[in-house]
Q: What sequence folds into this?
């Protein structure tokens, strides 16, 4: 390996001074070679990411539009995708992954060599080189990622956290992620907080994880590891979290967010990450697999996934699931249209869905859903604005609200909902939501319920009541004027449902309606032709809602908090996917029977059609809500919310934050 490295590095060092490759390609190879060489040197953090930052992206070969403008289509698209993959050399260098570095160098040199012949290479020939690289190393890349998720002995990040000197923020640069003033300010602020406050944050995080197992009646006894997923800047809290998990008998794994094309998922932050250098770059390259996506690739990838898990099956069996810390407050992102970006063809979208669904099934065989759990908590970052410190303290308070009080109030809502066969949700003003949500019928109201009484365990903070709706009879339109989903902004999002399935959708993000449909299809439907409604819920955390309105950051709240600030609807799998046959009970002892629908019940005959591997919550804020009414057999109605206020007896206390705020 050392010999291969020396040969490759020496050859790359010669490229910037060579003229054997004709324009318009010479500049591409010169600039990429200089980038690869710079990562090995003592380069500051900004220089590592300079080329893809928004201010430089217009003239970067990572930008497909620029690459096509300079080198033509389709070669420009291909070489832009190659450069995006080569940027993975940054984490490889920081983790001393010599093989990972070497295979990227050799990929670059093989393509460069193809351009040195007397005749310029054919597009298909260059693409074949890229495909061979992806397929040859895919088993190793996938096996490595799986092992890092379940084997604490491979951890790179945890050791930095354990040994960091929190009197300074210099330790942040050891991760190899993009570090901004925002990340530094986040770490500096937390480093200034009292130990008691930091420990309280960590305790809320890890205790929610433990309680999640307890409430689901699952055992932690035979579990060995937990994966922490978080954003850099929270290392002081994470150090305590690691210690807390160790007291539970769990070692932690902290894995970098996937950066290789063959390991990336729809969830871009499925691992630890620094600041995102450029969301447009991520968006432009999210479908680069369209270069090679075919049945052979799908088969190879699924086989690599099975073999990767088989290598670590004992470790996988002992994995307890993820503990996730999300951040919010970053500048909102809405992608610009990039005509040259690679997109999936209709047949490739079908293959992508198949690969995703079958991949989830493989994972479930080794890390069983009915034996694992999770927890998610969220905190703001300084870019949220001048009130960052106040908002941060408010979020700590919201994350620690009294469970018992919300459990009691939410039970009043559940008792009313269980009397009905459906709910009627209507928007107000410009919000044209008009939706009937059907409930699963109860056979025995004394021992059964259709809604879960959700307090702060796996989903922090409190509170909501939710169900998996009956699809048949769930009809109408869901609309929200502005919402952030999976890191993307949607404007005037409209979704039409018939018998619980999406039949139409649109948004106002682009002048061209078709671009809007493509945007939704990629980032909400995840290339499925349709999705079922997997959840209907009523959020009860009016304190969180008022916090957002008070500081003018309601549009920046993450799903985790936003879903608690109004009714919300999830598109995709139910909340109980892969666990439908496991009894679940509310604190009052009633069994929650609404755990599946007519799509998820296909798991018994065709699991590939039962699950979609996505669950995207869309919330209607209180100010856009006219009413929620429970429809009772015989024509009666029970109002729960009217004009954005809770009107059901026993829930009036939820209006106190709303009323106090309206008086200010």
A:
């Amino acid at each position: 390996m050392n010999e291969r490295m020396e040969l490759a590095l020496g050859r790359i060092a010669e490229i910037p001074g060579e003229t054997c490759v004709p324009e318009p390609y010479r500049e591409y190879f010169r600039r990429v070679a200089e980038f690869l060489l710079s990562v090995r040197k003592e380069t500051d953090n900004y220089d590592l990411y300079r080329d893809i930052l928004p201010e430089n992206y217009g003239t970067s070969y990572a930008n497909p539009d620029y690459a096509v403008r300079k080198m033509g289509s389709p070669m420009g698209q291909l070489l832009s995708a190659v450069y995006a993959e080569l940027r993975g050399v940054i984490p490889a260098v920081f983790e001393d992954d010599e093989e990972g570095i070497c295979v990227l160098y050799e990929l670059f040199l093989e393509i460069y060599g193809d351009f040195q012949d007397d005749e310029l290479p054919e597009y298909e020939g260059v693409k074949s080189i890229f495909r061979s690289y992806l397929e040859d190393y895919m088993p190793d890349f996938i096996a490595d990622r799986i092992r890092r998720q379940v084997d604490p002995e491979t951890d790179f990040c945890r050791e930095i956290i354990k040994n960091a000197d929190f009197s300074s923020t210099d330790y942040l640069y050891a991760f190899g992620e993009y570090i901004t003033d925002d990340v530094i300010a986040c770490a500096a602020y937390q480093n200034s907080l009292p130990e008691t406050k930091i420990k309280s944050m960590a305790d809320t995080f890890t205790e929610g994880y433990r309680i999640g197992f307890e409430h689901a009646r699952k055992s932690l006894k035979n579990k060995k590891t937990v994966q922490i997923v978080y954003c850099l800047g929270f290392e002081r809290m994470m150090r305590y979290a690691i210690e807390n998990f160790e007291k539970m008998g769990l070692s932690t794994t902290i894995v970098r967010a996937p950066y290789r094309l063959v390991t990336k998922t729809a969830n871009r932050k499925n691992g630890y990450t620094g600041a995102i250098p450029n969301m447009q770059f991520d968006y432009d390259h999210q479908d680069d697999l369209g270069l090679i996506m075919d049945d052979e690739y799908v088969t190879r990838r699924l086989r690599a996934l099975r073999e990767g898990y088989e290598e670590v099956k004992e470790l996988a069996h002992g994995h307890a699931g993820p503990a996730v810390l999300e951040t919010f407050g970053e500048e909102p992102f809405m992608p610009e249209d990039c005509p040259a970006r690679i997109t999936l063809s209709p047949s490739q979208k079908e293959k992508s869905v198949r690969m995703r669904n079958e991949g989830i099934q493989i994972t479930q065989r080794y890390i069983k859903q009915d034996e694992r759990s999770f927890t998610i908590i969220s905190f703001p970052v300084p870019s949220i604005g001048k009130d960052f410190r106040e908002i941060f303290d408010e979020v700590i308070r919201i994350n620690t609200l009294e469970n018992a009080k919300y459990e009691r109030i939410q039970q009043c809502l559940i008792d009313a909902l269980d009397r009905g066969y459906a709910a009627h949700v209507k928007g107000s003003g410009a919000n044209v939501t008009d939706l009937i949500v059907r409930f699963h019928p109860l056979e025995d109201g004394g021992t059964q319920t259709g809604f879960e009484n959700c307090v702060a365990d796996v989903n922090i903070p409190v509170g909501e009541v939710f169900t998996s709706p009956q699809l048949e009879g769930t009809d109408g339109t869901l609309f929200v004027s502005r919402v952030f989903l999976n890191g993307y902004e949607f404007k005037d999002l409209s979704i039409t449902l018939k018998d619980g399935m999406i039949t139409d959708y649109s948004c106002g993000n682009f002048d061209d309606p078709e671009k809007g449909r493509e945007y939704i299809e990629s980032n909400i439907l995840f290339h499925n032709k349709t999705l079922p409604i997997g959840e209907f819920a009523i959020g009860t955390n009016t304190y969180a809602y008022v916090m957002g309105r008070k500081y003018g950051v309601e549009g920046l709240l993450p799903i985790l908090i936003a879903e608690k600030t109004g009714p919300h609807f999830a598109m995709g799998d139910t909340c109980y996917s892969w666990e439908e046959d496991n009894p679940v009970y509310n604190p009052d002892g009633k069994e929650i029977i609404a755990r599946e629908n007519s799509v998820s019940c296909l798991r018994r005959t065709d699991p590939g059609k039962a699950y979609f591997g996505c669950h995207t919550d869309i919330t209607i804020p209180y100010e856009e809500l006219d009413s929620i009414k429970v429809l009772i057999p015989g024509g009666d109605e029970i109002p729960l919310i009217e004009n954005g206020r809770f009107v059901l007896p026993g829930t009036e206390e939820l209006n106190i934050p709303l009323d106090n705020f309206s008086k200010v």
